[in-house]
Target: SFRICE_035138
Amino acid sequence: LEEEVEKVRTAHEELVGSCERRERLERAARVRLQADCRRLHDLNRALKQQVELLSQGVRNENDSNTEALRKELQNREMLIAQLITQNKELACAKERQEIEMAAQRATLQEQRTHIDILDTALTNAQANVVRLEEECRHASGYVERVMGLQRALASLQQASDRREHTERKLRAQLEKELQTLRKRECNCGGSGGGAGGGEAELRRQLRERDERLLALEGECAKWEQRYLEEAALRQAAVSAASIP
Model:
């Protein structure tokens, strides 16, 4: 997405540079054409003045100079006709240039519209980047909480395993003592009352250990259920946040 944003920004800058170059060329061409038109108008006016002066001179000169003046006048008229033709050509060229400039202005307007579209796309892309970064931060927070719950569950599981191991050792020890007492009871029938009391005590201790073990197993199951519920809620929240 950042690469697409960079591409849009680069295209935007290139279009702006192209528009500026075209505007500079358009201004330079307009100035050049205006200068040519002014120069030709001035030259035409000067030639007309010269023609008028020559016409007056022809009327005032003697008949001997009339033919020479007529030839000079014809030359001047030919020059004027040539200049008029050039002026018309320049006017046509100016008209074509104005048409081209109008087309360039239309193209420039289209490019500006395209630049506006690219600006809007760039703004939307940046907003999407910000939104995705925010969602990523939220997801990272959820992941950290899930990892914390996993660590807590692992610690609880280790503690439960240690307690279970201790309970097994105690149970084995108590069973061993119980077997020893039973053997003594079998060997010594007269001392059966005291051995029976010891066996009852051992059975009571076994029941207490069993109850504690069951309580620990229930607590472990409760924590596991809570962890699964938390993980499901976090996953649902992350999935909902990732939907555009």
